[in-house]
Amino acid sequence: MEKHPTLIILFCCIFQFINAQSLTLTNGNKEKTFKPGGYYEIVLADSEKDLEGDCCNFTDIKGSVTGVTADSLQMQLSWFAERNIVDGAKLAYSQVSQKGNNYGSFAHGDILYLRHYKSKKSKKRKDNLSVFGALLVTTGAVTLANTLLIDNKDDRQKLLYSAAAQGGVGFVLVFSNISKKYRFKGNQDLWRIKN
């Protein structure tokens, strides 16, 4: 029997699409719907302060949404990290799933914020561009510092232009690749998951 790679790929894509689900967020009159197959970074905590230092519990989740109910969100996980403080001791646990065969369910009320990406590949690309942008900002700062060592006015001006270009491109790369946080707790503009 002859195998048809096109049919196998098509079947895998259909299965992934069926397994994924769209997600709609609401905020007053605003509504944002993400298409199926998106990749999410979700943080479960009581407040932003829980993420700082070693005081509190929080959970960091990455993966795709497979279901939405009135009170919970089901996900196929590619990353799961948890930190708990027990009797003053920090207990940390993390797990990476390359095959995406881990699933979890999380209460809407536990979500501090979420970020949406078109895909896991898109998140990786944005992360890499942000790192590259930070490197450009750093090299721009070094180039700017080197202008103090140059006596020739023309050479110093060229270095200043170079430092400005590096820093400018770096800042653009860093800030244009930060995905929006949709906050669910706090005193800012809060979002909710729509069923």
Question: Can you lay out the helices and strands and say which pair or pack?
Answer:
Elements (H helix, E strand, L loop, with lengths): L4 H15 L3 E5 L2 E5 L4 E6 L13 E11 L3 E15 L2 E8 L5 E6 L3 E7 L2 H27 L6 H24 L4 E3 L8 E3 L1
Antiparallel strand pairs: 1-2, 1-10, 3-4, 3-8, 4-5, 5-6, 5-7, 8-9
Helix pairs in contact: 2-3
Please, could you describe this protein's structure?
By secondary structure, the chain is an alpha+beta fold. 34% of the residues lie in helices and 35% in strands. The strands form two sheets. Strands 3, 4, 5, 6, 7, 8 and 9 form a seven-stranded antiparallel sheet that branches. It has a three-stranded antiparallel sheet with strand order 2-1-10, with no helix packed on it. Strand 5 (72-86) and strand 6 (89-96) form a beta hairpin. Helix 2 (120-146) packs antiparallel against helix 3 (153-176). Residues 10-18 have low confidence and may be disordered.
Beta-strand percent range: 35-45%
- Tally of separate helices: 3
SSE topology string: HEEEEEEEEHHEE
Measured on Cα atoms, how large is the radius of gyration?
22 Å
Straight-line distance between termini: 45 Å
Largest sheet: 7 strands, antiparallel
Unreliable spans are: 10-18
Structural class category = alpha+beta
**Rough shape?**
elongated
**What's the oligomerization state?**
single chain
Mean pLDDT: 84
- Helix residue percentage: 25-40%
